[in-house]
Specification:
By secondary structure, the protein is α/β, with parallel strands linked by helices. It has a single domain, classed as 3-Layer(aba) Sandwich (Rossmann fold), CATH 3.40.50. The protein is built from 6 helices and 10 strands, in the order αβαβαββαβαβββαββ. The strands form 2 sheets. Strands 3-2-1-4-5-10-9 form a 7-stranded mixed β-sheet, sandwiched between helices. The chain has a 3-stranded antiparallel β-sheet with strand order 6-7-8. Helix 4 packs parallel to helix 6. It is globular and about 50 Å long. The N and C termini lie far apart (36 Å).
C-alpha cells in the first residue's frame, strides 16, 4: 500500500472518531472478556502502556480486577476520547497522552504490559501493522508482555452487512474494507481483516515468545483473536 493511500485512510478514521467519539464511549464501557487472560501473569507493580487507549477502559479493568499496583500510560489521537478516559481514570496513577501511535514517538517505557486492543484493524498497510508491533515490542521491560487483539469482523455476516463499496480511486490490499457506523451519527471507518496467516506474521514481527493465542468476546465469544506475547527475561 502506498503512502498516499495510507494517509487518506488514517484521515478517514480520524474523521470517524471525531464524529462518533461520544457514541463510541457509550457503547464501549464494559471490559472485554478476553482481557482476563493477562491477570495471572501480572507482577505486583505493573507499568502499562495502552496504545490506542480510547476511553481508558482497559486501565479501569486492571484497577478493578487486578491485585497489582497499576501505573498506567494511555495514548490516543482523539482528544474527546481522552477526555472520557480522564474522567474514568481520575482516581488512578494514570498519564494520558494525545499522540498518533503511527506517526508520533511512542512513550519510551520500559513497560511490563503493552496493550493494543481494537486498533490493528484500523492500521492501513501490512508493513505498517508489522512495524507498529515491532516498535511496541522494543518498549517492553525484560519479561514484559505485549497483548494485542485483531477484530474478526469479516467472519460474521452481521458485520459483513456493514461493508460499503470501496472507492475506485483508492488502492486496497486483500482484507481492506470500509464499514458504516449505525449508532447516532452515520460515519465510515476503514477496517482491515487480519486472517490467521497475517496474525501469525504479526507475532513473528514482534520477536517475542507467544504465551497463548485464542479467540474471545462478542455474542459468539470469537469476535477477537488475541495473542499474549512475552519478551525474554
Amino acid at each position: 500500500m502506498n503512502d498516499a493511500t495510507i494517509e487518506r485512510l488514517i484521515a478517514l478514521n480520524r474523521a470517524f472518531y471525531d464524529t462518533t467519539a461520544d457514541a463510541f464511549d457509550q457503547t464501549r464501557g464494559n471490559p472485554w472478556p478476553g482481557w482476563r487472560v493477562v491477570l495471572p501473569h501480572l507482577p505486583p507493580v505493573v507499568r502499562v502502556l495502552d496504545a490506542g487507549c480510547g476511553n481508558g477502559r482497559f486501565g479501569r479493568f486492571l484497577a478493578s480486577e487486578s491485585a497489582s499496583q497499576v501505573i498506567y500510560t494511555g495514548v490516543d489521537s482523539n482528544p474527546r476520547l481522552l477526555e472520557h478516559a480522564r474522567v474514568a481514570l481520575a482516581d488512578l496513577n494514570a498519564r494520558l497522552l494525545e499522540r498518533d501511535i503511527l506517526r508520533d514517538p511512542l512513550p519510551d517505557g520500559p513497560f511490563d504490559v503493552i496493550a493494543l486492543f481494537g486498533v490493528l484493524h484500523h492500521v492501513p498497510g501490512a508493513h505498517t501493522r508489522r512495524d507498529l508491533i515491532a516498535r511496541l515490542a522494543v518498549r517492553l521491560a525484560s519479561g514484559g508482555m505485549l497483548f494485542f487483539s485483531a477484530w474478526r469482523f469479516y467472519d460474521f455476516e452481521r458485520f459483513r452487512r456493514r461493508i460499503v463499496p470501496w472507492p475506485a480511486d483508492l488502492n486496497a490490499e486483500p482484507g481492506d474494507y470500509l464499514l458504516d457506523w449505525r449508532r447516532g451519527e452515520r460515519a465510515l471507518r476503514y477496517c482491515h481483516h487480519i486472517d490467521p496467516a497475517e496474525h501469525a506474521a504479526l507475532i513473528a514481527a514482534s520477536g517475542l515468545r507467544a504465551i497463548t493465542t485464542f479467540c474471545a468476546d462478542g455474542e459468539s465469544s470469537e469476535s477477537n483473536r488475541y495473542s499474549l506475547l512475552r519478551r525474554a527475561s
